[in-house]
Design goal:
877 residues, DNA damage, 6-stranded mixed sheet, MutS, DNA mismatch repair protein, domain I, 7-stranded mixed sheet, 27 strands, 32 helices, damaged DNA binding, alpha/beta, nucleotide-binding, DNA_mismatch_repair_MutS-lik_N, ATP-binding, Nucleotidyltransferase, domain 5
Amino acid sequence: MSDTVTPMMAQYLEVKSQHPDALLFYRMGDFYELFFDDAVAAAAALDIALTKRGKHQGEDIAMCGVPHHASEGYLLTLIRKGFRVAIAEQMESPEEAKKRGYKSVVRREVVRLVTPGTLTEDSLLDARRHNFLAAYAEIRDAGALAWADISTGQVRVMPCTRARLGPELARLAPREVLVADPMSEGLRPLIEDMGAALTALAPASFDSQAAERRLCDLYAVQTLDGFGQFARPERAALGALVDYLDLTQRGKLPLLQPPTVESADAAVQIDAATRRNLELTQALSGGRDGSLLAAIDRTVTAAGARLLERRLSAPARKLDVAQARQACVTFLHGQSRLCADLRQALKAVPDLDRALSRLALDRGGPRDLGAVRQALVQAGALAGLLNVPDLPDLLADARAALLGHDALLDALDAALVAEPPLLARDGGFIAPGHDPDLDDARRLRDEGRSVIAAMQADYARETGIQALKIKHNNVLGYFIEVTSTHAQKMLAAPLSDRFIHRQTTANQVRFATVELSEIETRILNAGGRALEIEKRLFERLRAQVLDAAAPLAQAARALAEIDLASALADLARAGDWCAPKLDDSRAFAVDGGRHPVVEAALARAGSPFIANDCDLSADQGAAIWLLTGPNMAGKSTFLRQNALITILAQMGAWVPARAAQIGMVSQVFSRVGASDDLARGRSTFMVEMVETAAILHQADDRALVILDEIGRGTATYDGLSIAWATLEHLHDVNRTRALFATHYHEMTALSDRLDGVQNATVAVKEWEGDVVFLHEVRRGAADRSYGVQVAKLAGLPAPVIARAREVLAALEDGARGASPKALIDDLPLFSAVQAPAPAPAKPLPVLDALAEVNPDTLSPREALDVVYRLKGMASDG
């Protein structure tokens, strides 16, 4: 191959130079092809063949490719592996390119930049989760965080300091975060720790004045005042989102709803460590299974599932909001038949939000129009079901949003077939009878022979020549043929004015008519014409849908609200949950509380969950339970279940308990369990201290704090002193409601000194040297940890257990008065004396005898004799 750069490769290099940080999918016919380093990286990431095509600067040009029709799967793999992809499409046909010159290259342009936060295709997204793109802006000492899901159109913004950025990113779990280039490296560790891709933009993208102009242009308004008051950092963050979407979507902006300002104190504050410890939306092992979200999700629509995750991630801090949501659940809990009917109707509701988004981005097809139609059909059915008295306000508002779409529904229903295809280019989605021109084109396309046969019959009648035929060949096309005998009649007036002589053969004469020539052209072009008419009708319907985008978005939100309320009502009924009493007091009383995830796991195993009470109510000051008891007794479960009950209550759900009263909580903090953070050089103890420090610095008097085994990662006296001081700080300074689990029994004395501290313990029972866990939380203090018994249950060798009992007894004696020197002298902990090795196992005659028995050949009498013989041998041995 020549080393000369071909025109096509020159075009590729020019397009690639405009997107140096993205893999370039360069459209060539039915394939997207990649070259040079892009090909090497993509082939490795996708595990596809790497080939070569020509040379450049003396080196082979690496090349790989993926089929256009299957590109979405490859895109998903690349995005998940951290790549960005620029899509360069052919903007003209090869025939059009040749009009500019024989060697002209088909014009190609990048039509889209695919990044983690800008996905819209169903195959690239999790239908039940949001795909947020976020932007963080700072102006002087103020900051703001904006986020959007372009697949649903949701846009939000809130004031956010850099200190609050971590917790908010943990709540939203965005796929991509935009920041100004100068601060990108400083924020990179935080953002990437959250599992998001960081994209640095030029500072001009965050200019607040330019941002206001972008936003006004986007929403076609003169001012943003109609949407709310936006501070400069908020405008900057929103403007950066719009600027980036304009860049990645190449001018085809998604259908974005007007931005909503979220108050920083509208939701319960839950930091990243607490979310992780409580496994709200993701289990510690990774994935959704085992999380609270998985345990409570009974939604039947994608939008309802996304709303559930939003509510669970951000429980309401405002009493009226939480009560309004709970009222919907309570109403449907009491209307079991209505609830069941609603859930059945909801199962047929498609994802209206994402269908609208694809249509707005011109990536939608007839199936998305069908989804809008189906959603409106079900919206009408649901509105009919909800036509009942005494609807709670939220459900009444939702019902109202489902009405008023009759005109659009009629238009879609009249135009579309029952099951439209995915792509408009496939055709066949407009119903017969909707458009006369389309019906005519289809008739010509599908029934050309019958149309010609009908014309032949008309001509035969008109001329009186029954032997007249209409035929076709590649030279003349369609023509009328008669015998020489009848030709004279055709050539004479008045027929000669209508029938045009074309050709004479030995025995036949051929004619044409203007009408026949027109029909021939129409038949030949009928397929293409039918498709063009359908595409035109598709654009008309798409425009009608987008004109109604605002009320359709409201209907989509209403469908999600109804789905979530009915799902939570169904969950409460099936799980025997209760409606918690919510108020603005400092009450916290749970009667018979249960851990929803653990209870579900035990139910699958056929085991019951032991319910427990918890009362942290306090009119003023702190209310702290100091919880003692052995490992494996259920302390961590008890701590977590009360935090989860609080979160469920304030998101508007019923809770797993016999009864509950929750005074609104402002923050939930959890430090239960820890592990090394080797990437940052932090030990388990260091991680524990960092998380504890965050709690002590931030917790206010409306917070709920759960702490487990503070100080266990260091020496006994160090750990005890840290735990002691931490509990005092929570009591005296934070004045919070808290559950504090510990193995330091010395701390139980604090209940006598601190008014807000009460002792509680997880009950156990000793039986023949072993411990039986009762999983019951009672008032009072444990006097021991039962660590040796737990070690025995874990399977430590018997000599180790025996030795541990000796050491424990000696240490306890020492604690009761012996000096450390005497203790070491009496108990040679550090001597060379080794625990006796277990004796080798002796052969057992009973086992040898048993090995000789073949149970398949024994009669019942013989089997009984064997049992007696073995029993006798065991007694002798």
